[in-house]
Amino acid sequence: MDMITSADSHQLPMLQKVLGAATEEASQAMSVWTGGKISLSLDCVREIPIEMVSQEFDLGMDLLTMVVLTIEGEIGGTMILTFDEENGRRLAASLFKQDVSTESEWSELERSALNETGNILGCAYFNAIARLVNSEFVPSPPIFLQDYGVCVLQQALMEQVQETTDVLICQTTFLQGRETLNWKILFLPDPKMRETLRAST
Length: 201
Fold this sequence. Notes:
Elements: H1 12-33, E1 38-49, H2 53-56, E2 63-72, E3 77-83, H3 85-95, H4 108-132, E4 138-139, E5 143-148, H5 149-158, E6 166-176, E7 179-189, H6 191-200
Antiparallel strand pairs: 1-6, 2-3, 2-4, 2-5, 3-7, 6-7
Helix pairs in contact: 1-4, 3-4
GO molecular function: hydrolase activity
GO biological process, one term: chemotaxis
InterPro entries: CheC-like_sf, CheZ_family_phosphatases
């Protein structure tokens, strides 16, 4: 587990435990959704200065397919599910047992498949955290995007710039058997969520 230390680095292992439990629950939901083909693994929990985020979480310069969910309310955060074009379309095709589309535009069915994937993952993840911190979260509907990953990440961070100088990010990877897929989840809790997570550890 790769972690970057911070002033609160002694709490990172405890935060890792909380977020690891949420990842495990999301993994179980993903396994059911994909017929046992896909699972999740917690990659890292990092607390780093905001200005370093884009460097540390290099999403490349290519357009990505993403599903974004947010937790609405006083305690919040953003979940960004990212795919490259090929892997996103493969997932959509496998869920509906169809051939991988070669059309330039994504169909409504493909978009729906990825949005539902984000919804299932987000609900499982957020519900697990809500139970662990004895709170209640209301996730937004999933939003399908095709954009540069760094732009979406920076937009998610903009809301935190006025409140904090560093950010907590949890990164999760996807596995098909033992093969690591080119999919990722980035979870960015806001400062109040971070305080709630710390208080629960």
